[in-house]
Structures are given as C-alpha cells and as structure tokens.
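Reviewers of the previous submission asked for a worked example of the structure-prediction workflow described in the proposal, so we include one complete record here. The input consisted solely of the amino acid sequence. No template or homolog information was supplied to the procedure at any stage.
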Amino acid sequence: MPSKSVIAVMIVTNHPVMLEGLRLRVEQQPDMEVICEYDNPSQTLRDFRRCGPDVTLIDLQLPRGAGLRLMNAIRAICPSTPLVMLANYPGEVDTSPRAGQGPTRVVYKNLASEQIILAIREILGR
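From that input alone, the workflow returned the following structure tokens.
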C-alpha cells in the first residue's frame, strides 16, 4: 500500500500497449504508484473500494460504451473521486452535469504522455 505522499493510481484500459505505456509513465514519477490495473470494467467496480485509488484513469474506448458507464458507476460509489478520462477526440466525453459530479479531466490520446501526468497532478491539486 502506498504511503500518504504517493499518488495511488488505478488504470482501466483494454489495450495492452496503452496499459503498459501508462504504467511505465506513472511509475517513472517518484510520487506516483499504479496500485491496480484492469481491462474489465466489472472487475474494476468490484475492486474499486479495496484499491482506494487517489485518481482513476479510464479509457473511453472500452467496448460498447463501458468507459462512460464505468465513470458513472464509480461516481455512484464515490462521487468525489478524481477521474482522468482518456479520449480519442473532442466530443467523445459526456459533459452533462451527471458526468461532472466530481473532479474530471479529459486527456486526448494524441497528446504527449506528460499531459496525463500533468492532468493527474492538476486534478489532485499537486
């Protein structure tokens, strides 16, 4: 279990290369640690409370709209949990009040990986 000064990150994507890249990029940070990673939204939900992430990265390209459903399900469990949504293009993310119940950042996959790290820090105010 990470110490209080370490940012605990959960990653949810069904793309093995993306998962490996995100994990490596997060683990390169001296104050971040990947505490759990999933390719299955239902498993993510079962383990969300047990993992207790400070921030969750969710790939919106999970099959059959599962990324947005997972975001809403996490919000139902813990409305204030910070979420960083990984999107392919503008307009892919639901910006309705329901989607914005808690802190949310959108990062587009065509940006440098540093943008994901910055989004994690910004959403947590660090």
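Residues 16-27 form the longest helix (12 residues). We consider this example representative of the routine output the project will generate in years two and three.
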